[in-house]
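Hi C.,

You asked whether I'd gotten around to modeling the 113-residue construct. I have! Everything is below, sequence then structure, no commentary in between.
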Amino acid sequence: MKRLGRHAIVDVSEVDEPLRHAEVTSLLTDMASACGATLLRIETHEFGEGHGLTAIAILAESHISLHEWPEHRFVAFDIFVCGSASPEPAIDLIRSRFPDSRVRSGIIDRPGQ
């Protein structure tokens, strides 16, 4: 059975500071590169002061997204890649960018037919 892709879910809790737009753009760019993926564009939406943001990096190999809840000190990541791209280096990058936070992750292999 051929694998369609790999889907990583990453939860980061106990985040010290709210994320800034420039920080998110830089992080998603670095994550795409770490995965070995081709970044096509990044879209972000801020929900207003203190209400977090959502961002998505659209990749030739699928996507990386994040959603932040600063009031809960929590950020959720979704990393879905296919082809030769791999989510593990992006997970390592998240761990290094949030060294004082709790990071939990899991990876699902998405099977083909």
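If it helps when you're writing up: The chain has a mean pLDDT of 93.

Thanks,
B.
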